[in-house]
Amino acid sequence: MTQPMPPQIPEEPAPSGALALAAFEAAITALVLSMYTAWLSLVAAAVLAAFTRFGAAPDPNAIWSTVPAWDRQVDRLMSALEQIARAGWIEAGRQLGIEIPFDPTDSLIQDQLARTRNLMVRTPDEVYRQIIAELGAGHERGESVDQQAARVRHVLDVTGTENWPARARTVAVTEVHRAYNMGGTAFALRAQQQEPVPRLLKTWDSKHDSAVRPAHRLADGQVQYASQPFIVAGEPLMAPGDPSGSPWNVINCRCKQKFSRGTR
Question: What is the DSSP string of 207-257?
Answer without folding.
Answer: --STTS-HHHHHHTT-EEETTS-EEETTEEESSTT-TTS-HHHHTT---EE
